[in-house]
Specification:
This protein has 263 residues and is of the alpha+beta class. It has 4 helices and 13 strands. The strands form 3 sheets. It has a 6-stranded mixed β-barrel. A 4-stranded antiparallel sheet has the order 11-12-10-13. A two-stranded antiparallel sheet has the order 1-2. A hairpin with a 2-residue loop joins strand 1 and strand 2.
């Protein structure tokens, strides 16, 4: 099986589970699991093709993880995959601090912060996924437990690639500590349906969305690479379930290219 086909086969498995209701070992204590420790690694011989296709969509694997910093929705995968081979060739262990990502090189170390409670962990990304719409990372059971997201199954997170020898972020709160009372309010979630250089095009999209009664639509100007763009966004949305429902509604309206935005 070639790298692309192998990736798709493994990725399909990771895509099917955004959370799991099965219990862990009775003696499992997530607080006893240490963060992954970044160390010099070579790119895996498996899981790093230039690109691969899952569910008819092509994903481009990044040449480097340097500078990667993204906010979005995290999910987790557990017992159904424990002991199975990951896209990097390693064996998945749900009790270790690992994760899956669609485009980062394998392996990559990353700090994942739950934006709702500011708990933070470091994981080794060694697998591909999740391929569920609107998700940016699939965490191991242990990592999800430390981020206090098992019950909900999802969390709003920031994923930031880290380099070997890089000191911990000074503003990161340890996963075992409660979030301080001074933390900002719950982050807002938007769905962006486009960014247009032409203001009139943005207004036409807004009118189309308003006609479709999808929720509050706003057009906001922004600068990107020296170019003024007009971003069309829907929201804020109250929950991940609302985001998923909106994405399905937009697909029915023929709008399939969307992006979750957490400012």
């Amino acid at each position: 099986m070639g790298p692309g086909k192998q990736l798709a086969a493994v990725g399909l498995l990771a895509a099917l589970l955004a959370g799991c209701s099965f219990g862990p070992r009775p003696d499992f204590d997530p607080t006893s699991v240490p963060n992954a420790v970044p160390k010099p690694v070579e790119r895996s011989q498996y899981g790093n093709p230039d690109s691969y296709v899952v569910f008819g969509k092509r994903y481009q694997v990044l040449d480097s993880s340097v500078g990667y910093d993204e906010r979005g929705i995290a999910s987790w995968y557990g017992p159904n995959f424990d002991g199975k081979r990951t896209s990097s060739g390693e064996i998945y262990d749900m009790y270790k601090m690992t994760a899956a990502n669609k485009t980062l090189p394998l392996p990559t170390y990353a700090r994942v912060t739950n934006l709702e409670n500011h708990k933070s962990v470091v994981v080794k990304i060694n697998d591909r996924g999740p391929f569920h719409k609107n998700r940016i990372i699939d965490l191991s059971y242990a990592a999800a437990a430390k981020l206090a997201m098992l019950k909900k199954g999802t969390a709003l997170v920031e994923v930031r690639a880290i380099s070997v020898g890089e000191p911990p972020s000074p503003d990161a709160v340890a996963a075992s500590e409660p979030a301080p009372a001074s933390l900002p309010a719950k982050p807002r979630i938007y769905v962006q349906v486009g960014a247009y250089a032409d203001h009139d095009n943005a207004l036409r999209m807004k009118a189309r969305l308003t006609l479709g009664a999808v929720g509050p639509v706003r057009v906001r100007p922004a600068m990107s690479n020296g170019e003024r763009l007009y971003r069309v966004r829907i929201g804020p949305l109250p929950t991940v379930d609302a985001v998923d429902a909106l994405t399905k509604r937009l697909a029915q309206l023929g709008i399939g290219q969307t992006q979750v935005i957490i400012p």
